[in-house]
Amino acid sequence: MHWKEAIIYQIYPRSFNDADGDGVGDLMGIIQKLDYLHDLGVDILWLSPIFQSPNADNGYDISDYQAIQPAFGKMDDFDELLEGVHRRGMKLILDLVVNHSSDEHSWFQQSRQSKENPYRDYYIWRAPKDGREPNNWLSFFSGPAWEYDDVTGEYYLHLFARKQPDLNWENPKLRQEVYRMMQFWLNRGVDGFRMDVIPFLSKDPAFPDYPTDRYGDLTLYANGPRIHEFLQEMNRDVLSRYDCVSIGEGFGVTADIANLYVGSGRNELDMIYHFDHAVPRDEINFVEPRAEFPLPELKAVFDRWDAAIDDIGWQNTYFGNHDNPRVVSRFGDTERYHCESATMLATVLLTLRGTPTIYQGDEIGMTNCLFNSIDEFDDVQVRNAYEALVASGRYPAEQFMAAANRIARDHARTPMQWFDSQNAGFTAAKVIPWLKVNPNYSTINVAAQQVAPDSVLNYHKNLIRWRKKTPAMVYGTYRDLLPDHPALYAFERHLNEARFLIIANFSAENTELAIPETLVWEIAMSNYPAPEIDNKTILRPFEARIYQY
Ligand code: GLC
């Protein structure tokens, strides 16, 4: 199967399934659920980082790229997992986090020792400027992006946490080191990589200050002068030599330049995913969160990206991942129309043009969780923002908590809800999981949904099976029919003789739509029972229908 035809499923290993009962998910836990994933119908599993890490950013700070994080298991477990995935006809891709490493990586330990150390240039060091940071860049996780290190009296750059020093891609030795590491995993049999903040690898070597009118605009870090050179080199030296897939996390990539990364003939990446519909989490959002996208704006994002990528490149589509709150809490109605809204959103995700990624738990409609105090959060981003905004006395805790309860990444990281038993079956009953379990597990869990024919889970299975036999969902063109409609998303997918109309009601109200009568319609998929003849033009709350004509 070509990767364009695949459906990806993202696993956040810490939260997926804990087999050894230490409160943290692990590789054996994933192995135990491979039949579940196969039965769901997904093709490619993407694992968030599984490597050795002190977990300042839950594995996105790697201290050894070729060792498995002990809490997740051993290399033997990994081999068994890979074999189990392949035996079921699925593929496995790993997270490639090479914009930065952990400060506990041996490269950095060496690098900080002296200016002459052979590893010095593996990282980005600069002398103080007028006694302070070399420029005014901010970190994603609050505070300046530079940290002073006593040992040599210089600053190192860290776009993320202090414990995530940025690697220096200007250094060819570092690049070769990364390529060797990629080959290590590819030779072991992995099927590709999701590439963390890939547009950040190249930085402007002059390290200019932010222009004051864009102060704090973190997208300025993206798309540096040598990024395409680096990716073409990586492609030539590594990716092109293997049968593998590459997916770029396209932070800071705008639609108009996306095909520089993924356009055919560019020899860079296979696909990229953008942030235009993600929840912004710059620090200020933790006290003044941006209002959720009204539907026309959301559609404009999808329209813009589809038009820009067109059939020249390819994109990876998603609603949820480990960096966003739960999609059904964003765009659905978790109280009155949980199942309807979760299945409506799935319908849209799986019918847009692009390779979709389903985030773990979205297939059962997992929701945001109520965090009652800052101590219940784990994420370095939310904790640092709290220090900067609340502990410093600038904003009241209540305001922060209200915002964090909307936008924090931990919403997506609460343990997977398998059963209606203590800890949702994620870990042994007596154990305290690393992050709180959403108390709604008693109603939202896999076991309950497996036996309910109309559940979110079973809808996903049916939809995935239907999509797989419908090439127009992969290769068909896309056209938004009602870009300005405030409640309905209606678009067409068209391939040769095959035409499909997807209509999704994003509101909790009945919404009328005059469907052209000149055409003979047949409902191919729907998340409600078939409408009465005379009610055909009314879309019920969060109803989604796929028509074929
Ligand atoms: C990416 C990851 C995110 C991580 C950051 C730093 O955005 O998806 O989880 O915190 O990069 O590695």
From TrEMBL:
<dbReference type="InterPro" id="IPR045857">
    <property type="entry name" value="O16G_dom_2"/>
</dbReference>
<dbReference type="Pfam" id="PF16657">
    <property type="entry name" value="Malt_amylase_C"/>
</dbReference>
<feature type="domain" description="Glycosyl hydrolase family 13 catalytic">
    <location>
        <begin position="10"/>
        <end position="413"/>
    </location>
</feature>
<dbReference type="InterPro" id="IPR017853">
    <property type="entry name" value="GH"/>
</dbReference>
<keyword id="KW-0378">Hydrolase</keyword>
<dbReference type="InterPro" id="IPR032091">
    <property type="entry name" value="Malt_amylase-like_C"/>
</dbReference>
<dbReference type="InterPro" id="IPR006047">
    <property type="entry name" value="GH13_cat_dom"/>
</dbReference>
<protein>
    <submittedName>
        <fullName>Alpha-glucosidase</fullName>
    </submittedName>
</protein>
<dbReference type="InterPro" id="IPR013780">
    <property type="entry name" value="Glyco_hydro_b"/>
</dbReference>
<dbReference type="Pfam" id="PF00128">
    <property type="entry name" value="Alpha-amylase"/>
</dbReference>
